[in-house]
Design goal:
The structure is a homodimer of 106-residue chains. Chain A has one domain. Helices cover 69% and strands 0% of the residues of chain A. Chain A contains four helices and no strands. Chain A has helices spanning 8-38, 43-63, 71-80, 94-104. In chain A, α1 packs antiparallel against α2 and α3 packs across α4 (94-104). Chain A is elongated, with a radius of gyration of 17 Å. The A-B interface holds A 26, 29-30, 33-34, 37-38, 40, 43, 46-47, 49-50, 53-54, 57 and B 26, 29-30, 33-34, 37-38, 40, 43, 46-47, 49-50, 53-54, 57.
């Protein structure tokens, strides 16, 4: 399964979906962070955001791993989280789509 | 110099000045942090605030050390940074005031 070859066309699709998902997750994280920062009243609220940023940064770093050996898992997770829709992956081989669905746990 | 005794009256003065300085520095840090957060446009701006918060937290933790063996240095630093004024320390012994002035490097 993880030795599957990605054709140039598939790589293009993967790249577009991947980049779009990263951009959306970063944008929504920024919006969420700004709302949390604006709501800070006490020092404790502010210091808690240091941990929040660390966790979000690590989570995003780990999740968005653009290696062809990892992409099935990555898209599976994004699908599970509702960050991408299956239609966006149209053009990938049936085998990959099945693997991604399975990885998504749906 | 660091074995100097603090009378009850001096402790009261020290506590009030110390607590006031902490409260002011925390409030100004919150204001500064909120302005930085509101100005975030790119993910990099946001991630940089993780380090900013870590540095500010450590700096404040280290600076505000309410041990009688440290207070001369603490007040010296606060004086140097313009966070307290010498008049606020009125009531401390002349020896302590001299030591604080000296510690302030003024």
């Amino acid at each position: 399964m993880y030795g599957e070859k990605w054709t140039d066309r598939e790589k293009k699709i993967a790249r577009r979906v991947f980049d779009g998902a990263v951009a959306e997750e970063l944008a929504s994280t920024i919006a969420d962070f700004k709302a949390r920062a604006a709501a800070v009243n006490e020092p404790e609220d502010m210091w808690a955001l240091e941990q929040y940023l660390r966790d979000r940064r690590r989570d995003i770093d780990r999740k968005y791993d653009y290696r062809y050996s990892q992409l099935i898992w990555v898209f599976g997770q994004l699908l599970r989280e509702g960050r991408i829709r299956e239609e966006q992956l149209a053009g990938l081989s049936e085998e990959k789509l099945n693997d991604i669905r399975r990885a998504s746990g749906r």
